[in-house]
Amino acid sequence: MSNISNRFYRNRVALNVLANSVENAKYYSGSHINQVFPSVGATRANLGEKDSWINSLVSPAGRVGYVNISTGPISAAHEEHAIVPIKTAIALVRDMGGNALKYFPMKGLSSEDEFRAVAKACGEEGFALEPTGGIDKENFEQILRIALEANVPQVIPHVYSSIIDKNTGKTNVEDVCELLETIKKLVDQHA
Fold this sequence. Notes:
The protein is α/β, with parallel strands linked by helices. 34% of the residues lie in helices and 14% in strands. It has six helices and six strands. Strands 1, 2, 3, 4, 5 and 6 form a six-stranded mixed sheet that branches. Helix 5 packs parallel to helix 6. The longest helix is centred in the C-terminal third of the chain and has 17 residues, at 173-189. The two termini are 20 Å apart.
C-alpha cells in the first residue's frame, strides 16, 4: 500500500480534515494525493518509485449502481458525461494505479441509495472509499456505518467546512476528537 497505512485506525478508517497553515502541513509528507479520474495514471507514472496513495474522483451519476468518471477540468465541463458501472470505474482506477474512489460531491446523505451502492461495490471489490462532500457531525456516523457494513476495506471520510471554526478559519480540534471517538467505536464494532 503506502505509508498512509500507518494513519488508519485498525487498518480500516482514517480521517481527512483541512490544515490551515504551512506550519501545520510541514509534518505531513504528502503520501495521500487527491486526483481527478483522468489524471490518476499520469500521477502514478510521475511519482516513479515514491510510495503514495492516490484516490480517484468519481461523482454521483443520479443513477444507482453507476458513477460519473468525467471529473477532469475538460470532461467535467462537457455536456455529455461518462457514466459507468461502479465496478468498471474501480477496475479502471486499478488499471491506472489508483488506490481508492473519492466519491464527491455526496451532499451528505442526499443520495444515500447511490452511496450505498458505491460502498457495496467497493466492499465486494476490496477497494478503498473516500466519501466526501457535505459530511458533518450529524451524518458522519451513518455514512461511516454504511461503508463499514458494506465491508469496505479502508475508508477515508473527508470532513471539511462543517468542522471549521468560522472565526479562526481553523479546523476545530474538539470536533476532530469527537469524530475520532466515533471512528473507534464503529471500527471496533466491525473489526
